[in-house]
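Sequence, please.
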């Protein structure tokens, strides 16, 4: 097979890239190791930045997002059993939208298939070859067990943190920054209406907790757990008790309970591999960088990378200009490092980190009080949370 852009991975990065390229008249083939059903159900991110929603709207991918997405104009910081609202829209003129990542994935797959886009699910043994030539290749075994090869002009490595793309780059060509935290997230999806109209980020001596949502009928909740914690140690009752304790308010807080539909543990990790390019291979999204979920940035960074990559590839294929491909990595990394800092900052402020020393604990409280009482501090948080405008990172 021959195509212009071979895309590894049908997560948000790979799918959005294939659609943006299609709008520019550039051909691509996406290969994905999981089944369509699996990627359409995989429960992950839930918060779309202002700019992410704009990208999806401009690309004609927002019919359902416009109908079902829940626009949010603020979040709550909860500590010492009190709420402190950060009015994001009042402070920045921007907002965020609650809309599940798997809904974004479903929407793009439907649009790609309607346009006869080539998406190959359930492939195995994906390998990348000849990346430093102008004819790189992807080989894999398809769902029927047949060996396949795609010859392309460019390969987009959109296969997430554990994919093959980054691992296909010789180690001496990458700078790796890796930071692992002591705590992880235990997340549940519950069949019950949200208990509050906005997200609540809670700092409590027993650990961080987050109240989020997916729809007017479904609540998404998280508690901080030890990095080595096992899901089987957490009965439904233990999860709810912990949530009640951590989300408590002095004036009382009614937390709605309901059947738990999904649960999982996610590690907190900060990771950057740079440059995000090796020859004709371009990394986008989680394959190049990971953030702890506390800033709600991972999916949004994937979208921002792909927006830059689609432009660079347009200039390359339609104008034969490679300047934007040459600056791709540095153009993305400005936003990536801003989000790395913000996600680390939110995690450092909100998590309890069992065993943290008293000095660190007082610093956390000082930062929380400052953010809750200073408009300058709140505005900085709000600006990052809603997402730095593209004009800022395009500068
Ligand atoms: P993905 O989504 O991991 O997609 C990569 C795809 O590549 C496939 N793949 C391969 N395909 C072919 N051959 C191979 N060898 C392959 N190896 C892997 C995989 O099956 C997969 O389909 O990466 P992408 O597209 O870069 O998207 C990144 C986002 O998924 C991720 O950053 C976010 O989910 C992170 N995240 C959040 N981000 C936000 O912006 N806002 C949030 O509120 C937010 N909350 C979260 C999150 C992530 C979480 N977890 C579970 C990691 C909450 C959680 C709990
Ligand atoms: C979610 O709804 O899954 C969610 C929201 C905000 C975060 C992380 C996850 O910071």
């Amino acid at each position: 097979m021959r195509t212009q852009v071979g895309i590894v991975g049908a997560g948000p990065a790979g799918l959005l890239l294939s659609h943006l390229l299609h709008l520019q008249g550039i051909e691509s083939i996406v290969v994905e190791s999981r089944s369509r059903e699996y990627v359409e159900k995989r429960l992950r991110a839930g918060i779309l930045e202002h700019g992410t929603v704009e990208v999806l709207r401009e690309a004609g991918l927002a019919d359902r997002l416009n109908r079902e997405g829940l626009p949010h104009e603020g979040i709550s910081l909860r500590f010492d059993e009190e709420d402190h609202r950060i009015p994001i829209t009042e402070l920045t003129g921007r907002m965020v939208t609650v809309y599940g990542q798997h809904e974004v994935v479903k929407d793009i797959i439907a649009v790609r298939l309607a346009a006869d886009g080539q998406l190959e699910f359930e492939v195995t043994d994906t390998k990348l070859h000849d990346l430093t030539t102008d004819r790189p290749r992807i080989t894999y075994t398809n769902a029927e067990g047949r060996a396949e090869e795609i010859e392309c002009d460019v390969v987009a490595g959109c296969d997430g943190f554990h994919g093959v793309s980054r691992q296909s780059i010789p180690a001496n060509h990458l700078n790796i920054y890796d930071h692992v935290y002591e705590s992880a997230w235990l997340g549940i999806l519950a069949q019950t209406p949200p208990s509050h109209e906005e997200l609540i980020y809670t700092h409590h001596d027993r650990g961080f907790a987050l109240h989020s949502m997916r729809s007017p009928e479904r609540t998404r909740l998280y508690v901080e757990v030890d990095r080595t914690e096992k899901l089987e140690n957490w009965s439904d009752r233990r999860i709810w008790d912990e949530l009640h304790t951590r989300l408590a308010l002095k004036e009382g807080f009614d937390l709605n309970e309901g059947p738990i539909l999904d649960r999982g543990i996610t590690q907190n990790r900060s990771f950057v591999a740079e440059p995000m390019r090796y020859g004709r291979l371009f990394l986008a999204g989680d394959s190049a960088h990971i953030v702890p979920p506390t800033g709600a940035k991972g999916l949004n960074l994937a979208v921002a990378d792909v927006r830059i990559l689609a432009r660079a590839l347009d200039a390359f294929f339609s104008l034969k200009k490679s300047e934007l491909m040459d600056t791709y990595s540095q153009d993305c990394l400005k936003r990536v490092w801003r989000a790395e800092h913000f996600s680390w900052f939110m995690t450092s402020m909100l998590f309890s980190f069992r065993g943290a020393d008293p000095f660190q604990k007082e610093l956390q409280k000082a930062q929380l009080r400052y953010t809750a009482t200073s408009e300058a501090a709140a505005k900085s948080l709000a600006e990052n949370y809603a997402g730095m405008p593209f004009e800022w990172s395009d500068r």
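DSSP finds twelve helices and 20 strands in the chain.
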